[in-house]
Amino acid sequence: MLFSPFEIEETLRMFSEENLDVRTITMGINLLDCADSDPRRAAGRVYDKITRSAARLTEVGAQIEAELGVPIINRRIAVTPISMVAGASLSGSARAGSASTMGPAVAGGRAADGPLLFAETLERAAQEVGVDFLGGFSALVHRGLTPADERVIRAIPAALSTTDKVCASLNVASSRAGINMDAVQLAAGAIKEAADRTRDRGGFAASRLVVFANAPEDNPFMAGAFHGPGNPDTVVHVGVSGPGVVQSAVRQYPDASLDTLAEAIKKTAFKITRLGQLVVDMAADRLGVERGIVDLSLAPTPAVGDSVARILEEMGLEMAGAPGSTAALALLNNAVKKGGLMASSRVGGLSGSFLPVSEDEAMARAAEQGVLTLEKLEAMTAICSVGLDMIAVPGDTSVDTLSGIIADEMAIGVMNHKTTAVRIIPVPGKGAGEWVEFGGLLGRAPVMPVNRASCTGFVRRGGLIPAPVTSFRN
């Protein structure tokens, strides 16, 4: 891939002045060949394969960073959903507890011993190879729960509260299967308990758990990354992020029509994606693995000038959440994806706009002032790539209310045939209007109020919300 001197100069300016970065190089590793009827033997194989496959990941990332002058923020690993690997060793176990409550299975500890062995193994492997995060303590349960799936879900609170790098995700819905409401309730219980176990850190463990509808198998971003079974044995993906670059491009057209603005954003996304393609090519060649996807997601950070909400303001909104926000976000997301598709045949993952309240300083400000409400965010997630992301809610929010929030977001994904997700933190001991500090890339956020009307009678029915008629497309 050849770059002209002008393109090189332009890209360097994006790094130095507009917060362009390669957010992550993520290696996907298939662990299905590690399964064994003896869980300790399986865990040993998992450790060996991860440390062998990713031995040079941080080294290669540093080389590329130095050679190109490109900031690469994180090195990450995504593995096969651990419930699939653990299934062989857990298949003889009885299902623990009911599907509508966390019950004593986690509190007692014994039911989680098997999955926790794998969580500890993943943490040790991540520490050994020096990556920032490892995703895949996960289960795909949109059609139903196996005993292994349920044991993994019940182990999530303990796993996330006793590790630093392990991330978890659950796919509880799809446009072909509908919404598994039993899994939704288990997920809500896991979120609540994970937050309670880390109350001294503002419920931090819940920030490493994502609940999906239509989860992509090639997503390089945490906490939702896992290595889907349709992928090669080992693959490398790259996630590029540039909200500041897009904001700068929009700023140059203060009086332009919206279609002109869309064209400017599309051209900018093209340039950003070309950088991502270069990095994924270099990383794959040097690591000797398959080329994966380039994920062009506008993922903000708490740094000023690296905000998706500021892009919406440059378009003419007083603040994110104002009337017109969903339409503005639709323009932005569509233009970003079109530009990315022009620059690479391997665009994938989520590729669009993230709206994480705690990670976007302008989004957090809008939430604090009541302009951006939970309901408005939910409407905007019909357009964006992720969904309700890094939302802090009162610590006394019930499991049933969390289930209802998750179910609403899953319905948006299912009915619109798109990926959507929930990463929500019920902050122990805090109420609406207070602030919680997570630190680093996770930032800080105001605790947002939730609707107090009860949904208990609905969510406790359990069962399946059937897929839409459009799911039948054979």
Name the features.
Anaerobic Ribonucleotide-triphosphate Reductase Large Chain; 16 helices; 2 domains; eleven-stranded mixed sheet; 13 strands; 474 residues; alpha/beta; two-stranded antiparallel ribbon
Summarize the structure.
The protein is of the alpha/beta class. It has helices at 5-18, 39-53, 57-68, 82-90, 103-108, 113-129, 147-161, 181-197, 243-251, 258-287, 308-314, 325-343, 361-368, 374-380, 399-416, 456-459; strands at 21-29, 72-79, 133-140, 166-174, 178-180, 209-213, 234-241, 290-296, 387-394, 420-427, 435-437, 444-446, 464-465.
Structure characterization notes:
This protein is α/β, with parallel strands linked by helices and 474 residues long. It folds into 2 domains: 185 residues, Anaerobic Ribonucleotide-triphosphate Reductase Large Chain (Alpha-Beta Barrel), CATH 3.20.70.20; 233 residues, Alpha-Beta Barrel (Anaerobic Ribonucleotide-triphosphate Reductase Large Chain), CATH 3.20.70.20. The protein is built from 16 helices and 13 strands. Strands 1, 2, 3, 4, 5, 6, 7, 8, 9, 10 and 13 form an 11-stranded mixed β-sheet that branches. Strands 11-12 form a two-stranded antiparallel ribbon. It is globular, with a radius of gyration of 21 Å. The two termini are 39 Å apart.
